[in-house]
Structure formats: C-alpha cells, structure tokens
Amino acid sequence: MREFELVIIGGGPAGMAAAIAAKKQGIDDLVIFERGDRLGGILNQCIHNGFGLHTFKEELTGPEYAERYAQQVYDLGIPYELGTMVLDITPDKQITVVSRQRGAETVRARAVILAMGCRERPRGALGIAGFRPQGVYTAGTAQKLVNCEGVVPGKEVVILGSGDIGLIMARRMTLEGAKVRAVVELMPYSSGLKRNIVQCLDDYGIPLMLSHTVIDIKGKEKLEGVWVAAVDEHNAPIEGTEEYFPCDTLLLSCGLIPENELSRSAGIELSPLTSGPSVDESLETTVEGVFACGNVLHVHDLVDFVSEESVRAGENAAEYIKGKPSSPGTPVAVKPGNGVRYTVPSRLYPESVTDCVHIRFRVTAPVKGAAIVVSCGGKELARKRGRIFVPSEMIEVILKKEQLAGLSGDIEVRTEEAAK
Length: 420
Known about the structure:
Blueprint: E1 2-9, H1 13-24, E2 30-33, E3 49-51, E4 60-61, H2 62-76, E5 80-81, E6 84-89, E7 94-99, E8 103-114, E9 118-120, E10 129-130, E11 136-138, H3 139-147, E12 156-160, H4 164-175, E13 179-184, H5 194-201, E14 208-209, E15 212-218, E16 225-230, E17 243-246, E18 249-252, E19 256-258, H6 261-265, E20 290-292, H7 303-321, E21 332-336, E22 340-344, E23 347-348, E24 356-363, E25 367-376, E26 379-389, E27 395-400, E28 411-417
Parallel strand pairs: 1-2, 1-8, 2-5, 8-20, 10-15, 11-18, 12-13, 12-18, 13-14, 21-28
Antiparallel strand pairs: 3-4, 6-7, 7-8, 9-19, 15-16, 16-17, 21-23, 22-24, 24-27, 25-26, 25-28
C-alpha cells in the first residue's frame, strides 16, 4: 500500500492551487489524482476570456489560466497521476483508486484535500415533459463538443437557465453560426453575472425571458421544438402564456451541484444549503484531516476565488500534517440570516484563528441599497454596504481575530435594508 502525507483529489484549479500552497509550506510527500487526461479540469474547455483578473491582474482564457498553475506544478516537481479515478475514501483516509497504469489499489494519506469540482443538473432532475430526443444537452456538454471536439450540436437553439455557462454558450453558438432563439429563465432575475448578460446576450440581440420555463419537449427521435410558458410567483406555468419555439437543440444551464459522492463515503457531514461539506474556518470537514475547497465545497462565480480559497486549504492541510491539532475548544456556528442563502464556513473555532476568518456567502434574491451585517449575540461584528447584491455574485466578509474574542452565541450573516 502506497502512503502519502497529502493526497489531493482533483487536478483542476482548486487541486493545483492547494497542492502548490502545501508544497510551498514544506510538504514534499504529496500527490494529485486527476481522472482526466490533463491538468486543468473544466478550464480546458472554457476558451473564452475573463479569467485571472484578480489573480494575475490580466485577462486570460480558461486554458491559459490553467496552464499558469500547471506550470507551477511542473516547476515545483509536484507528483500528479492522470487518468486516475478515486472510487472511495474511508473515514481513516484510505483511498481506493483505479488507473490503467496501476490497476486498482488502496492508498493511505495523513491528510486529504477534496477538490473534485461540481457537475451540471441534468434533465432528469428538472421534470420536463416529453420524450428523450436527440438534441437535448447540458450547456457544459455542448461547450465541450464545440470547443474541444469541433462539433456544433445544432443550428436552432433554445437555452433553459441563465447560468454563466448557458450565457457563454449562447454567444458561442451564435459565433458558430447557430441561431439562439431565446434564453429562458425560471426566476425573475438572471442567475449569471451581469457582464455575461451584456456581452453574451445584449451584444448579440438574444432575448432573455425571465419568469419563464420550458414546459414540454417535442420530438421523439430528434428534437423538433419546445413549448415555453410564463410562470407565477410559485413557479407554476400560467395558462394562456404558452409559446412554441421550433429548434433542434435545447441546452440546459440549470445549476451546478458539488461533486460529493466521495465526501459521503468518507462520512463527511454535508451542508443541506450548499450540498458541499460542512467546514470550519480552516476549511477542514467534520472528518479530521480532510479539507475541502473550490466548487466541491460551494459553487463559485469566479475561478480566481477558487484559487484563493484553495491556497488556504493547502496551507491549513500542511499545518495539520506538521502537527497542528484540529480546531480546539467549542465551535461557534455561522448561520445565514435574513436574505442570505448559506455561509462558508458553517462553524469556526475562535481559539484556532491565527489572523482572520473569510466568510463567503450568497444572497437569496437581488437586493438594492442594503447592507450585509455580521453579528453575534446582538453585537455587530462587520457591516458591508453595496449598491446592489445579487445571487450570482459571491460575497466575502473578513473578520479579524480580535473581533472574535469573547463571542457568545451564533454568528449570523444577514441583509439589512438601509435606513430611510
């Protein structure tokens, strides 16, 4: 049985950033397990620009951003094994992996970093009526077909969901000569970044139909078209608003789900709000020595934030390997309050905080002219004002160690309307 001090599962931007951080902290006995045939993960198919503005202060494509980190992995001599699938993790950190080169084996680790990313919500989870014809794809699958395989799925396109991948694919399909008839969004607001709405829809005259959804898929062997209807405040279709769109392609951009089957097998407690692991201020899960970062923890809007978070995971895993005890004392819960969907971390140990704590979260709905308030036991710890907060953009509040002294009760993160 091979043994490592640190095993990183996933060779995307999160896994690479965590491995680099751990290596720089003096952890030499480590390995990255990546199921794909190259490092970089999902970034390899994201050929559009917009990456790296925070991290590298310049605009890069997805493959360029991934290559910056992959080059650091090469330069630092960090071992990585491609085409290697992790099948199982036990609570005592025994990892079952399988690869063409080594077959099936069990690996033991002192610490593990989970960086498996996320997956798209498929049609089966959406409950749309109709047959299963050729021409229905998730937006990410279509992105891979176009950008990596050189295959355009169709010429008449409807996109369900206004997530960033769907918005980007609306532009991509248009550039490939397809006609994107509409982007249909169930909610009364877009779930994608504002810049993508402008650059991918408005600039190309593609309509965004808010408070609408696809209610039926026509075609048995091949997609012929979809029925779209407006929805009420309960997301139920409104009779009489149906509209038929002939099309040969339906792309689904209806949300991302953290890839946490391995986390479950390890006995890690998952958050019902994020579907990712419940972690403390060091990004350690409920299983000692197992850390999580990136989209497997909670879905991020920018890869730069993934890298930043993963650096903290790598550094904290290194400290754990060096002998730093797991978070001591009694944890303080961090809970979402009014207008906040979730918080990461969901608990923290004030005694173990060395400098500061990063609390990341999203609001439940767009809110204008409000403030984000972090409080505990009636004491305000932080306040962050903004012109508008939207669910598509992750928000961060940083609490310094001295602000955590003498806390009594749970920490709450909420929105608060501005005084009139």
